[in-house]
Here is the input.
Amino acid sequence: MSLPRVRLESSIQESDSAWILDPGEGHHLISVRRCRDGDLFEGLLPGRKILMRLDLSSEGARGVVVSESPEGSGNEIWLLAGLLKGDPFDRLVAQSVETGVSVLVPLLCIRSVVNIPPGKIRSRMERWRKIAMEATKQCGRADPPEILDPIPVSSIPSLELPSYRFVAVTGPAPTILTSRPRFGAAVAVGPEGDWTGEELDELERDGFSRVSLGPRVMRSHTAGVVAVGVLTMMLDGDVNV
Here is the structure.
């Protein structure tokens, strides 16, 4: 059984061997995960996983360091995802974190159903980043992904993407399993209404190759999660074709 986990960014490092836990994280351990004094849990920071023992007192919850192990960021996987309605995009954020995304780029596509007013972009970004941080606790991932501001497809050339680039399509195309990415990859997945021909042409000019994710037509957020999961396993050497 996996250990309970907390993020430590908002906690206070009391010494080399102890942290004063953020009240919200302490509440999560005690009230949600039902941890008791002396129970073990994991503290997460970028590049670090810290095994801790819970120390409860009238002053609050502390984490006493038992051991620490570094965690590298691993292979770089970018997901460029057509913007979706609230709940589906929230699920895409959480589940792509669990499957290994490094950078998530929301795309303002021609057929995107949702349109975020400029005044609400900041609050939406804060929501996505909070969801991403919570997802790291679910999957035990020390490094949270970077989530960039939404951009149109025409702005993709401004990004420093990995050299291996794929765009998921529903028509005839080689399966993504026939690709041989190394060190990192980027995959683009369209919105509910799919890509337009102009967007696909633009992506191909930017070095994206058309790929299929299989014979079934998936929902956009499902396709994004599947694409990231497959690339993660391929780059980790877990899938050989």
Q: What stands out?
A: The longest strand covers residues 60-70. The mean pLDDT is 93.
